[in-house]
Amino acid sequence: MIRLLLVSALVFFLGGCTKVGPDFTRPQPPELPKELQKKNDKSAKELASWWQLFDDPTLDKLIQKAIKENLDIQAAGLRILQSRTLLGIANGLQYPQHQQLSGTYTTTYRGGFSDMSNLSFDLGWEMDVWGRYARGIESAQAKLYLSIAGYRDIMLSIVAEVARNYIIYRTTQERIEYAKRNIAIQERVTRLTELQYHAGNVSELDMQQSRTQLYNTKASLPALELSKTKAANALAVLLGTTSDKITKILTLDKKTRKKSHFERYLAATKKGTIQLATETKTLTDIHYIPLPRFNPYKKIDASVLLQRPDIKAAEYKAHAASAKIGKEEAKLYPSFTLFGTIGLNAPSVMGENLFVSAGPAFHWDIFHYERIKNQVRFADARFEEALVNYSKKVLQASQDVSNALHAYISTKKQLQEREKALQATVRAFNISVRQYQDGLVSYQRLLSTVEKLTYTQDVYAQTRGAMATDAVFLYKALGGGWQGSDAQTYLSKAHIEAMRKRGVEWGMYLDKNTTKLRKGWK
Predict the structure, then answer these.
(1) pLDDT score of 390
(2) Is 288 inside any structural domain?
(3) Half-sphere exposure (CA, 13 Å, Cβ side) for 423?
(4) pLDDT value, residue 125
(5) Is residue 368 part of a domain?
(6) How far apart are CA 486 and CA 216, in angstroms?
(7) 518 and 457 share a domain?
(8) Same domain, yes or no: 388 and 493
């Protein structure tokens, strides 16, 4: 009875364990620029599905398909599953760490045969007096959150890449349409020059220069088509499908193609003249590139920026490093263990023999020669480094936002001036055509205006694409696009079925409800 009371008292004492080492607190971010001021606006809601601000159903379809089928996102989801299993291992260390059932059977011959059998169950439980295992669980949980942040960061990047490559594809299409318009114009100018040459009004040099300009413009089409193909292939990889399926999704409807027809670009003038429509709507009626409905001068909520997945990942790395300090510090103190063995010996001659043994034990590395202390110091230095990296990540994020924001504003101003330049170039072309036909200017003046018209329209299309791309980079810098991860499972049905078929006992790990990211996992 006395022994039993002593053991019970020891268990009670050890049950009231403490956790050595520092308790983690969320690090304070460094001071952010004034333009990242907290303000009650809709920035958080807009960020969740920012691509809808482009008002492009095709872009919406591509992004939703990428979220479900992108291979990098699927691989990141499997890494979450791996982290969950490691957390399960850490949780299991709270219970008796040593549980072993063993048995033997032997036959001995000494003038006759005798048999001996043994069956025993050994149990060993190291009590978590100093919180070593608790800190291990804390570290494993932080690493689980880190894998979730990595999953969201990849989703954010994939969404932005889909949008970027889609804009490249549409920008190239728009440039091709403008090139085709200019080819049609240059063909008419070339025919006009040929008529003037055969009438003896111009030299052959003018005719050959006109043809040279036409052929050079035609030569630009294959390179543009190649750029469009590369963008489609990139989208195919991002969506985990083939390029022919992507091409079907990207095909423009008849209504959109009809709006950009060349005849709308020609002014209704008398036969034999070449005059272009000078209305702004007609000049820029090719609307393949989606532009967002976005106010760049609205204040940005700083708390939204701090939810960026890579910043959260830096926070979870710091948390895991903090837990590591306590895990190492616990080694400085003695460890207490309860052990027990129950067995059965059954010799053939003496009959069955039951035996039981149990008791406490302790282990203490008393002569560690500063080794364990240096491990604690190393862990503490690693934690401090993680805090520095967190601050750096926040500053880099604010830099990304500032760069993308000012790039968008700058490109938007450029586009306004490009549109004015386009209108002026068209008017200059119309004037030069009339004056050339009347013999008031040389062909070189006409050739110059045609060349500038081709260049100005191409640059205008590129500027529209750049402004749309700057908007994508801004939303990516703000950390938008991962929020949709909470609405779906992080494991695809195909992966779940494949793992179940291999015969591994997964329990509830692959159930639908357990493979969704809960609200607490942020």
Answers:
(1) 95
(2) yes
(3) 12
(4) 83
(5) no
(6) 52
(7) no
(8) no
pLDDT at position 229, please? Answer: 94
54 and 139 part of one domain:
yes
Q: Does the residue 105 lie in any domain?
A: no
452 and 506, same domain (yes or no): no
DSSP β-ladder status, 353-363 and 98-109: unpaired
Adjacency order of strands within the sheet including 353-363? 98-109, 113-127, 335-347, 353-363
**In a shared domain, residues 203 and 165:** yes
Tell me: do 287 and 217 sit in the same domain. Answer: yes
The backbone torsions φ and ψ at residue 127, rounded to the nearest 5 degrees and listed phi first, read -70, 140
What integer pLDDT is reported at residue 323 of this predicted model?
Answer: 94
274 sits in the region (left: phi over 0; alpha: psi -120 to 50; else beta) called beta
**Cα 172 to Cα 220: distance, rounded to the nearest angstrom:** 11
CA 119, 124, 128 angle in degrees (round to 5)?
Answer: 165
Q: Which pLDDT score is estimated for 313? A: 94
CATH number of residue 26's parent domain: 1.20.1600.10
Can you tell me the distance from the alpha carbon of 479 to that of 350, in angstroms, rounded to the nearest whole number?
Answer: 76
Q: Collect the ranges in the chain with pLDDT lower than 70.
A: 1-17, 37-44, 253-264, 267-273, 279-281, 296-299, 347-352, 484-487, 518-522
The parent domain of residue 257 ranges over: 19-96+131-332+374-484
* Number of domains making up the chain: 2
pLDDT of residue 12: 47
Count of CB atoms situated within 10 Å of the CB of 484? 16
Per-residue pLDDT, 206: 87
Question: How does 106-134 read in b/e, with b if 16+ C-beta sit within 10 Å?
Answer: eeeeeeeeeeeebebebbebbbbbbbbbb
Contacts of 399 (CB under 8 A, 6+ apart): none
In a domain, 220, yes or no: yes
Between CA 162 and CA 155 the distance in angstroms is 11
What does the DSSP assignment read for 419-469?
A: HHHHHHHHHHHHHHHHHHHTTSS-HHHHHHHHHHHHHHHHHHHHHHHHHHH
Q: Same domain for 456 and 518? A: no
Please give the pLDDT value at position 270.
56
Dihedrals phi, psi of 102, to nearest 5 degrees: -135, 155
pTM of the complete model: 0.86
In order, the DSSP letters of 353-396 are EEEEEEEEEEE-----TTHHHHHHHHHHHHHHHHHHHHHHHHHH
Collapsing DSSP states into helix, strand and coil, what is residue 241? coil
Same-domain status, 515 and 419: no
SS3 16: coil
Angle between helix axes 443-478 and 371-437 (nearest 10 degrees) is 150
Give Rg (Cα) of the chain. Answer: 37
CB 372 within 8 A of CB 20: no
Closest Cα to residue 124, out of 417, 415, 357? Answer: 357
pLDDT of the residue at 8: 47
- Is residue 383 within 8 A of residue 323, CB to CB? The reply is no
Residues in the chain: 522
pLDDT score, position 4: 45
